[in-house]
Amino acid sequence: MNRIKKSILCTFHHVKTFKTLFIIYMIVENLNAIKSHFEPDLISEISAVGQVYTHKRGDIMIDLGEEIKFIPIILEGAIKIVREDENGDELLLYFVEFGNTCTMTLNCCIGNVSSEIRAICESDTRLIMIPVMYMDQWLTKYKSWRTFIFNNYQNRMIELLKAIDSLTFKKLDQRLEQYLHEKANVSKNKELQITHYEIATDLNSSRVVISRLLKQLENEGTVQLGRNTIILL
Q1: Lesser CB count within 10 Å: N end or C end of the chain?
Q2: CATH architecture of 49-167
Q3: Which CATH architecture has domain 171-232?
Q4: pTM
């Protein structure tokens, strides 16, 4: 009986070890997409502590009021970052694409405060989540991590300034055109699967107004409208 127990425990140990090694292997394989961003030693650390997740288009990855425990790095796909006012109206701030992270989550990590944004998957998305405890350690330890964090801050700041400029200086029809082109760039596809209501939500407008402006763009030969589909021409 003892021999059987030992055999079972030994088998369980090997299965557990194999499972652990397989998980590490899969993380390393996933990190191939961003290997050029970081030093080999940092890649090894990310492999050891990171967790890879996949989300479907439309999934809420981070919600308002959530405690941020992980730093996301996009390996595939894209997410959009939105703010919500006291009435529940949303406004699109910017998109986060491959090889980047959301600086709004970094701010929450540094300040130890709850999320002030909602992150929604713009397409099927694969990302690696790094525990926040490593952020400060790696800032002092790895030059590539410092460069990565500071570049993301700079890029997101530029995008926020563009969003403010767009709200302040551009008419809604101009904002709509810019929005459609940004969506096409993010999805790498000029055929957008999206409803007029979704666009209205992102631009903090009404569906009726957006539908009218889209019809105007179609008459101008800029887009072709279909059922829940917009093709940029």
Answers
A1: N
A2: Sandwich (2.60)
A3: Orthogonal Bundle (1.10)
A4: 0.78
What integer is the mean pLDDT of 92-103? 89
pLDDT in tens, 36-48: 788 989 988 988 8
Cβ 201 vs Cβ 85: under 8 Å: no
**pLDDT tens track for 173-193:** 999 999 999 999 988 899 999
CB 127 within 8 A of CB 75: yes
- Spans of all domains in the chain: 49-167, 171-232
Q: Is 59 left (phi over 0), alpha (psi -120 to 50) or beta?
A: beta
Residue 155 burial (CB count, 10 A): 14
Torsions phi, psi of 151, nearest 5?
-65, -40
User: Residue 168, Cβ neighbours under 10 Å: how many?
Assistant: 7
- 3-state SS of 92-153 is EEEEECCCCCCHHHHHHHHHCCECCCEEEECCCEEEEEEECHHHHHHHHHCHHHHHHHHHHH
